[in-house]
């Protein structure tokens, strides 16, 4: 939780590591890194509003949906909000995606960071060009070639070669 009173008149930048220990929703999805890197800029605006911009970053271990091996997925989100006190909020503010309405002068930072990390999750977790899936020949040992999808069987070529030799 971040006490907002001190940011209403003066802007500031904060950065640090936030433990993910109590981010249960994030931890349900995979093996989250112990800490998320957070940087925030709070800018005092008129009416006591505070403009909040920042960036959060954390890695999460998931299962690659292509090769089913573990994959480390980097979660990065950049965001911009206006924090408005409930007493000053206008109609529609509550529904606006860019507005955070607070009623007790406190910003629920952990919740915000967790939301942002969840929003940056990929639709499908899988390896990418930097850390590619293992080649099929390493995933399927000899005798398991039936497990490979039809048309993509890397052993088909080997079988053909073998038959040629027997002829
Ligand atoms: Zn993979």
Task: Please give a quick description of this structure.
This protein has 167 residues and is α+β, with helices and mostly antiparallel strands. The chain has helices at residues 24-29, 109-119, 136-139, 156-166, and strands spanning 2-3, 12-19, 31-32, 35-44, 50-63, 70-85, 99-102, 106-107. It starts with a strand and ends with a helix.
Describe what this molecule looks like in 3D.
The protein is α+β, with helices and mostly antiparallel strands and 167 residues long. It folds into 2 domains: 2-131, no CATH class; 135-167, no CATH class. Helix content is 19%, strand content 35%. It contains 4 helices and 8 strands. The radius of gyration is 24 Å and the shape is elongated. It starts with a strand and ends with a helix. The model has no long low-confidence stretch (mean pLDDT 85). Zinc ion binds next to loops.
Q: Bound compounds, please?
A: zinc ion
User: Structural class of the helix and strand makeup?
Assistant: alpha+beta
Average pLDDT, all residues: 85
Q: Which percent range describes the beta-strand content?
A: 25-35%
Low-confidence stretches: none
| Percent of residues in helices | 10-25%
Number of helical stretches of at least 4 residues: 4
Largest sheet: 6 strands, mixed
Number of separate domains: 2
Distance between the termini: 76 Å
Q: How many β strands by DSSP? A: 8
Order of helices and strands: EEHEEEEEEHHH
What would the principal axes of the Cα set say about the shape? elongated
Oligomer state equals single chain
Alpha-carbon Rg, integer:
24 Å
